[in-house]
Amino acid sequence: MNTETQSTRQHILDVGYQLIVEKGFSNVGLAQLLNHAGVPKGSFYHYFKSKEQFGEALIEEYFSQYQAKLDAHFSNPALNGFEKLMGYWMKWIEVNDGMCGSQRCLVVKLSAEVSDLSESMRISLLNGANRIVTVLADCVQIGIDDGSIQVSNAEKAASQLYQLWIGASLMSKLNQNVEPMKQALESTERLLKGQHAF
Question: Which ranges does the entry annotate as DNA-binding region (predicted)?
Fold first, then answer.
């Protein structure tokens, strides 16, 4: 794929991401996407066989970018495992104003919508979420090893925390405030310190 081709494909993905985060996957028609992207219909089908395949590519692109940010955050050698994890969750609160913004809620926005709509998109979302949980589990294990985290099972802890925060994100959207996330942060600290067993 040459640079111009890759740039056009990326442009369609970037525009589509903003529209879908705002409106949902089903509510964004192909004509609307093409109009916002400023590309002809033929160009879309040059890069994507269908809207569903576009959705899969969008999800995969999102998780690739997200994992790069995770890797950068968790690579800080000055912080112990607990500090890295708490910093990560605090960023969820910092970028959330109770509404769905561009860098935080593709998983929250699409999970319920596409799980019944598209099996391939559901699997793409699940694979991406599992990748995040794996990164979190690695950090929990670092915290166990350095003594800053008191849980017995890193994978189970990471999975439960991710589920807690996805739920808190949904409730923040409903409440249009960050109070559910603040409560999740308090629960996270207690859980990582072993005050509630996993």
Answer: 29-48
Enclosing H/E stretch for 124: helix 119-146
Residue position matching structure tokens 């995040």: 132
Is-above-0.90 flag for pTM? no
Superfamily of domain 56-192: Tetracycline Repressor, domain 2 (1.10.357.10)
The rounded distance, in Å, linking the Cα atoms of 161 and 92 is 13
CA distance 133 to 145: 18
Residues of the chain with CATH 1.10.357.10: 56-192
Which ranges in the chain are annotated with CATH 1.10.10.60?
1-47
Domain 1-47 has CATH 1.10.10.60: yes
Q: Look at the chain and count its residues.
A: 198
**What does the pLDDT look like over 13-60, one tens digit per residue?**
999 998 998 888 999 999 999 999 999 988 899 999 999 999 999 999
* Alpha-carbon distances, residue 186 vs 135, 148, 179, 194 (angstroms): 21, 16, 11, 13
Token reading at 48: 């994507």
Whole-number CA gyration radius for the chain:
18
Tokens of 126: 């699940």
